[in-house]
Amino acid sequence: MKNYLIAPSILSANFAKLGEDTQKVLNAGADVIHFDVMDNHYVPNLTMGPMFCKALRDYGIMAPIDVHLMVSPVDELIPTFAKAGASNISIHPEATLHLDRSLQLIKDHGCTAGIVLNPATPLNCLDYVLDKVDIILLMGVNPGFGGQSFIPHTLSKIKQVRERIDQIGRDIRLEIDGGVKVDNIAEIARAGANMFVAGSAIFGAPDYKTVIDAMRLQLAM
Ligand code: DX5
Ligand code: ZN
């Protein structure tokens, strides 16, 4: 497995040219496509459903698609997104009554499974699910919108989760989403993260490759 993964969030892409823009960011060196699903209920925003994911696959997008479900209830969308071409599906514990069942549902549909913790969600949510997750995603902002600032206490949370992952010795990805930029990615990596979602930092720049290269340079230092 490659050590660091850069996952641009297409929430900040040009929705009127989604296929083209997604391919462009992959050509610029992205590893994974981060796909934010918001329902105007669990979070105060409304974005893309499974048809968009399928449309990207039909357009020819081959890269892993990392679906971040900010919806409640969540179970009904899991099989639908798996069929639509999701590679990983990550869910928030607050969005399901039966977290273990929802994680198992993701696995049963052939995807890897992630758990997402909001800035104020305690780490004990991980206690009984670590054997079922492939990704732990820590939010660096409150979910709902791109372009917010990274909440600094996330760094200590990353360190604590990194320790837990190292203790159990399973290959669990530690992904950070929200407020990731060229100037803080190195610090976030030093705290223990190895997968980085960036929306506005990449899609807000005129040249995606310049930003992704700059992020990789920071990660190499
Ligand atoms: C927020 C989303 C993020 C968001 C990140 O709810 O989950 O993926 O798009 O955007 P930036 O990188 O702009 O903070
Ligand atoms: Zn996200």
TrEMBL record:
Residues the record marks as active site: 36, 177
Protein keywords: Carbohydrate metabolism, Cobalt, Isomerase, Manganese, Metal-binding, Zinc
Cofactor(s) named in the record: Co(2+); Zn(2+); Fe(2+); Mn(2+)
Annotated positions binding a divalent metal cation: 34, 36, 68, 177
Pfam families: Ribul_P_3_epim
GO MF entry, a single one: metal ion binding
Primary enzyme class: isomerase
Catalytic activity entry: D-ribulose 5-phosphate = D-xylulose 5-phosphate
Residues given in the record as substrate binding sites: 9, 68, 144-147, 177-179, 199-200
Cofactor binding, note field: Binds 1 divalent metal cation per subunit.
Transmembrane annotation, as ranges: none
Superkingdom of source: Bacteria
InterPro entries, alphabetized: Aldolase_TIM (IPR013785), Ribul_P_3_epim (IPR026019), Ribul_P_3_epim-like (IPR000056), RibuloseP-bd_barrel (IPR011060)
Metal-binding as UniProt keyword: yes
PROSITE patterns on file: RIBUL_P_3_EPIMER_1
Pathway in which this enzyme or protein is active: Carbohydrate degradation
GO CC entries: cytoplasm
EC annotation from Swiss-Prot or TrEMBL: 5.1.3.1
Keyword Metal-binding: yes
HAMAP family: RPE
Function: Catalyzes the reversible epimerization of D-ribulose 5-phosphate to D-xylulose 5-phosphate.
Family the entry assigns: Belongs to the ribulose-phosphate 3-epimerase family.
Name of protein: Ribulose-phosphate 3-epimerase
Organism lineage: Bacteria, Pseudomonadati, Pseudomonadota, Gammaproteobacteria, Orbales
Gene name for this UniProt entry: rpe
